[in-house]
Amino acid sequence: MAADLIFFALFLAGLTLLGMALGPWMARVFTGGVRFLAPIEAALYRAAGVTGQGQGWRAYAAAVLAFNAAGFVLLYLILRLQGFLPFNPQGFGAMEASQAFNTAVSFMTNTNWQSYGGETTVSHFSQMAGLTVQNFVSAATGIAVAVAVVRGLAARSVADLGNFWIDLTRATLYLLLPGAILITLVLVWQGMPQTLAGSVTATTLEGARQVIAQGPVASQAAIKMLGTNGGGFFNANAAHPYENATALTNLVQIYAILAIPAAFPFFFGHMVGDRRQGRAIFAAMSVMFVGVLLAAYFAEAAGNPLYAGLTDPGVGMEGKETRFGLAQTVLFVVATTVASCGAVNAMHDSLMALGGMIPLFNMLLGEIIYGGVGAGFYGMVLYVVLTVFIAGLMVGRTPEWLGKKIEPREMKLASLTLLVMPVGVLVLSALSILTGNAQGSVQDAGPHGLTELIYAYTSGTANNGSAFAGFGANTTWHNTMIGLAMLVGRWGYVIPVLAIAGGLAAKPRAPETAGTFPTHGLSFTVLLVVTILIVGALTFLPVLALGPIAEHVSIAAGQAF
Amino acid sequence: MIPQLRPALVMMGAFTVLLGLAYPLAMTGITQGTMPRQADGSLVTRGGTVVGSALIGQSFTRPGYLHPRPSATDPAYDAGSSTGSNLGPSSAALLAQVRDPATAGGPAPVPSVMATASASGLDPHITLRAALRQVDRIAAARGVPPADVEAAIRGAVTGPAFGFVGEPIVNVLGANLALDAPKG
Fold first, then answer.
1. Quick one: B24 and B49 in the same domain?
2. Tens digits of per-residue pLDDT, A48-105?
3. Across the interface, which of B53, B57, B119 has its CB nearest the CB of A347?
4. Could you tell me if B109 and B61 lie in one domain?
5. What's the angle, vertex CA A28, arms to CA A26 and CA A29, rounded to 5?
6. What number is the ipTM of this complex?
7. pTM of the predicted model, to two decimals?
8. What is the 3-state secondary structure of A136-150?
9. Which residue of A has its CA nearest to B85?
10. Cα–Cα distance between A526 and A537 in angstroms, integer?
11. Is the CB of A306 less than 8 angstroms away from the CB of B90?
């Protein structure tokens, strides 16, 4: 156990250094200081008619929506027409309509919920030209929105937030693409396939025929991690030995998930000219990360009392891979759900009752512990707005953040986003149960069945994409409803947070006075963490009590279902 | 939104060509050129035939071979359709499976990895402890000294990860290839 805890500590130290190094690089990229692909940029802007003129928040949001719409239509068409397109060695036909809708929304919103099995449904062309492209651009979209929000916070009395098309292009060319190329090379070196062949047929030592599915796995896996997308090439995702071959690929992929999200607070500190502001947010994220990591670790390490005396050790290896064991599995489970990644290196459905509650909890908070690329940071911005408002009420002063007054308009918009998770998770789950669509899809009886349903709608709304995969999500109802949950979960944050940023950008920056509540330092960090836990978690306590907590108590009493 | 349509369509098209075709095809070319063994899936050949991949588990049921974990794919170790069982911790079905000595691979307590299905259904490893419990059965079936069997198993050991995380593990196919290899 000591070795595992040391491993976690070293991991966190590495992540901090990575974030600190990447933050200033991002500041250079998004202020136009990095230009080594300037000719490509210029050609792209010319063809697209982009002048580089700044956009107010409405124009910025319109650009995001237009780009999402174009991406959705293109991906939907590719999935429906893949039977007629090249690079289809397995000869897959069209994806069914509701599943193609779900998948197109899923990849466009950076969710990568997969209601399909990759190696049995999707052609290589769809994987590359459809899914891989959205892995890049949905991530770049999230980054662009967060960059615009940071600009709004840093600006003084200006009307625009930057230009979406330029932010999108720079995030892709200078951040995601170089990172993905580097990660691809490391992953292939460690054994991940990268080929256009569909499969290889082997004759096993016992003389059986084994068809081994292959494909351009590494190029997709690299960006699926770096862009916190999570949609796997194979059905088993990063648990598949081809998609995660060794302890090193596991570690590299976890760092790839969290690198950009961990860099965002430092980027923010850099941009607003006060690094303490960024460090306070990073500290709040890290405190919560350590908390959920240890909670998940000890929940899994405690083992399953139902199996005491039957297996040795009692630690449940169901749904886990031998090469990852306990520590590397738990670290991945936590990393993929604090961020909006959703790749899995173990089957979350088979985690211990409380071990499976932690990923659910991470998503229900809105994925702000580091969070998805961009999405984690703008989610955190909303919590900071709430926190300074609450702090302002406590000391009896007009709340301010970075010298900007937080007024009723900001509070209304921030409060609106608090409704996104409850609506997507609780309302849509309840509708599924009332209409009888939940009962047929859950695999396990008892409280675990409820957790499977809640997990599916949480994963969709939080744009995560991981699953309690025993849940049969490929029905017309769930494909449609989870598709809607993903849309609400994406635009329900993007549009209000851009509106807040637009409003704040226009405000002057008041000088700090003795009465200003500082948004750095220990007391702010503590207040931020407490606000997140109370506001984010309390809503869902009843449903967690009926699902994973009830299951935990049942197991402790010796009850299986 | 209308003025944004042109950039949306042009950018989407340009990124599809750059990221959807140029990037994966370039990576395929580069890795096939520099690391063909890995890029083609780490295939293992014996006497000119492909017998599997070093990274992908395969089914072994004969007593003279080291046995892998149970697999949730149907049939077991179907490398064209990876999956786990997804059975939960309170699942009565899973509990019954583990209680049954026929599926759990021996009397209780069995090593956890030998009683449970992996996440992918294609786990190429078992723990060293689980492998060493099979030495006597393999030695008896092959009529060779247990020490030879143990040597074959230990030759296929990797880990602990990074030298200190978790426990040593055995590549099942690797150990079985060593068991089959003529003694030199």
1. no
2. 999 888 999 999 999 999 999 999 999 999 999 999 999 888 889 999 999 999 999 9
3. B119
4. yes
5. 60
6. 0.96
7. 0.96
8. HHHHHHHHHHHHHHH
9. A319
10. 16
11. yes
